[in-house]
Design brief:
Order of helices and strands: HHHEEHHEHEHEH
Distance between the termini: 165 Å
Helix content: 55-70%
Number of helices: 8
Strand content: 5-15%
Radius of gyration: 69 Å
Strand order of the largest sheet: 1-2-5-3-4
Structural class: alpha+beta
Amino acid sequence: MNMKIINAIGIFLFMTAVSCVSGRKYNSLSDTSRHFMNERDALKEANIGLEMKNAELEARQEAIGMEIAELKGQYDKAEDDHAKALRDLSSITARYNELQSAQEDLIKGNVRETQRMLAELKASQENLRKKEELLRQLSESLDSKKTSLDELNHELEQRNAKLAELEAILEAQKTMVQDLKTKVSDALLGFENNGLTVSMKNGKVYVSLDEQLLFRSGSYDIDANGRNALRKLSEVLEKNPDIQITIEGHTDVVPYNGSGQLRDNWDLSVKRATTVVRTLLERSRIAPQRLTASGRSQYMPIDGRDTADARQKNRRTEIILTPDLNELYKIIDRY
């Protein structure tokens, strides 16, 4: 039912009831009604105030909620910014450490490079000082000697003359040695390649005789074939008195097991050399002072292999013919 109709009916009934009572009671009811109406109005006003207060509180609550949401958003953003800042700080710290390490390496490198350059500079300065000192000494030497250009040219001419003279003598001796080799080869033609070789090296003629051409194994007695070869050689040496003659005896590495005067390969090599000397001097006019006998034992082999063929090559006697160098020494002494 409509609230207005209900109110109208209530008023009607109230008015009817009022009209039925006495005036005193009416007055009493009227006062009560006014009291209730006043309370109702006060309640209405209080309710309106409460509704307004509630609306105000709701608005304030909504505002506070918005502020809280905004603050939470700001907090979340600040937390993200803080995390990002921590990451950036870590990255920057790592990069800083990397750059600091690189700077330290660069400083160390610069120190080493600087030290190297300083060392080079010091060495250059020392080298310059030495050159300056040498130049000063040369200058003082030139000043003290006061050598003129003419004097230097004269000294140079003397040296050139000496050199030309030496070259002429050396060439003459080379020709003489070549001629001597030819004469020796011609005299020993029947023996070459049969245990005897003739060669030229270091300005000397070498006549090498195998053991089998001169001696029996372990012996120092020359057989007839060897004496014949030595006599032919002595004829050539008689005709070339300016040639010095050295006889060297050589053995292999096999130890000498003889007895009597010979104890070892040293004795055998020397004894063979002296036997050749005596054979060359027999029935010849070769001056003994031209000859030298020496033993080399096993210590100058021409073949170092440990084979029968090598040992046979090493058992030999070498006659070394050296031209007279007195003229050459005289020229050298003059200067």
